[in-house]
Amino acid sequence: ILLIIALRKEYEHKILPWLYIFAVFTILRFLAWLFFSIVNDLIFGYNITMCLLWAVFCALNIYGWILVYSLYLELSDLTKLEDLAHLRMGTMASLNASTTHSLAGSRPTTPHSTVSTAPVM
Question: Which residues are listed as membrane-spanning (predicted)?
C-alpha cells in the first residue's frame, strides 16, 4: 500500500523505505533458499521442485526490485528537472520584471519638466 500511494502521488522520498525493506526481504529470502537447498535432500522430487521454484521466485523478486528502483530513479530525475524548470522560470520572470523598470530610470519624469522618460508600450 505504501508503494501504491507513493507512485500514485509521485512522492519519491516515500518509495525509499519500501526499497530498503524489499531489499532486506530479498536478501533474507535468498539466504533461506540457500539454506533450504543445502540442508534438504535433493534426491526427492518434492525438494528439487521446491528448490527450483524458489530459485525462480528469488529471480522474480530481484527483477521486481530492479523495476521499482528504476521507477524511483526516473521519478527523482523528473522531480529535479521540474525544480530546475521552476527555478529558471522564476529567475527569468524576476529578471524581466527588474529590467523593464530600470530602462526608464528611477523617476518617471525629469526633475525640471513633466516630460516622461518611461518607455512607450
Answer: 18-39, 51-72
